[in-house]
Target: DUF4440 domain-containing protein
Amino acid sequence: MALDDASAMLPALLDVEKQGWDALCAGTGADFYGERMTADGVMVLAHGHAMGRDDVVASLAEAPAWESYEITEPRAVSVGIDAVALVYRARATRGETTFEGLMTSVYTRVDGDLRLALYTQTPVVAG
Model:
């Protein structure tokens, strides 16, 4: 399936994204994203940091697990023949902390597998 057919890619993108969230909840996010991100992949996080794959892996190895998450309003956006973006709203909790944001994950196909090239978080402010 070509990555430029965004609507057809939505189920596969959601599956991969949920695998990532499940890994974050299980405390295995470092392993998951170490394998899933492209070599030059970047995460731009809500607290203002942009991290490459190695920094993401190191950070997640020390991070507490999330307890739960919910993905809503997903949509896929074609970014070209070789890339597709998944945009969605997420709400995640751990302890007394709840994070709600708009997320964008840009995937490309590498050796037949979807790989995360760019991930961004934009916090949703209640109001």
